[in-house]
Design brief:
It contains eleven helices and 13 strands. It is an alpha+beta fold. The protein folds into four domains: 60 residues, Orthogonal Bundle (Arc Repressor Mutant, subunit A); 48 residues; 83 residues; 81 residues, Alpha-Beta Plaits. The strands form three sheets. Strands 4, 5, 6, 7, 8 and 9 form a six-stranded antiparallel sheet that branches. Strands 11-12-10-13 form a four-stranded antiparallel sheet. Strands 1-3-2 form a three-stranded antiparallel sheet. β6 and β7 form a beta hairpin.
Length: 313
Amino acid sequence: MSKAKRLLDILMFVTAKRKFTAQEIAGEFHISIRTVHRYMLDLCDMGLPIYAEQGRNGGYTVLTSRLLPPILFTEEEAVSIFFAFQSLSYYRNIPFDAEMNSVAHKLYSSLQREAKIKVDKMRSYIAFWNPKRTIDAPLLKDVLEHSIENRNLHIQYESKLGLTIKHIRPIGIYAHDGLWYLPAYDYGKQKILLYRVDRILRILSTEENEDSFMNLEEWFKSKEVKNPIRLHVQLTMEGVRQCSSVPSFDGFVVTQEDGTGYIDMIIDKGEIGFITPLFCRLGIDGRVLEPKELIDGLRVKAEEILTMYQDEN
């Protein structure tokens, strides 16, 4: 039997048993005690968390039972997973980022020489480019875990009005344009609001919940337009190109024969504040025809910019 096959068999045995002695392994696999100790070192090097206890009643303990059994990937599958992780590299913070780096390292190390050469070459010809954010969200993983565990949070939050204390029930987190967002039920406002995770400065306390609440997937499906208002925008060719990459406009950008286009859709009135900066950036490439509230908001922004750059002379 090859060493690799024997290591695999021992790995399956010890993860199922969790507590064992070298003598048990030696008897089960008909190998010497010395070989058992050597194999334990090999398994530790592979990432299996084993604790060795010395003495007459000593032995080995697998510190976690959550180790997955070996999964066989084709070379192309391993390469695709490696580059899927690479696509997230422009996010400054990712839940379980240390674990993802470990997985990527293990995948790369397990590749044959030819596959490693292929990966190294592909790095020179493919990139998942997005503007790299420099904003930290150090509580990202904590917020995600509290959401999964159905806990209420008291948080210190930095909003436009300054530091505030919020009592919320998290729904989940999602990433957009390099930032992480947390939809949560705000007990003070008595409605679901959207928070930036990087603006959560501290988690002050938590509370367990016995009753269930919607999760992120259910929230996405249940989002409804409570205050409908028409969004009608004329777009140049450049406006079509830019708006086509905005997720909230997906399927609503109509392109005409000459390359120009338009958006004609119903949105919630509460979204105006979120889309105003987008149409500010579009400038002359997007002419808003409706709603009046959005036009008024753009005029205010334009006047603020003009005032800032007025010639003092």
